[in-house]
Amino acid sequence: MVKAVKGVYENGVVRLLEDPQVKGKHEVYILFPGIAKPEHVVGIPANAFRMLDGIVSLGGNALEDSERLWEEDLSDKDHR
Q: Closest Cα partner for 30 from 42, 48, 11, 16?
């Protein structure tokens, strides 16, 4: 079971802001959000998006294109 509880770290001391409602001895992990970069996040270089340019060629109007795709999907289902 994993239980997340918010706390405050100050001068080497962690103070929990709520009761974790667990009994006995438990190993805990302290995370400092916004300080360390996550290990498993992989970025995509901006120039990689150039390879995607033109893969889907519609009219250029997002609302009209999405409606056209929806209508095409519905008409395909009618013919099955």
A: 16
The three-class DSSP label of residue 14 is strand
User: Could you give the CA distance from residue 21 to residue 13 in angstroms, rounded to a whole number?
Assistant: 20
Instruction: Write down how long the chain is.
Output: 80
Q: How many CB atoms lie within 10 A of CB 53?
A: 8
C-alpha distances (whole Å) from 23 to each of 19, 20, 75 are 11, 9, 59
Backbone angles phi, psi at 72, to 5 degrees: -65, -40
This prediction's pTM:
0.38
21-77 pLDDT per residue, tens: 889 998 888 888 776 666 776 777 787 777 776 666 666 777 877 787 777 766 665
Residue type, 29: Y
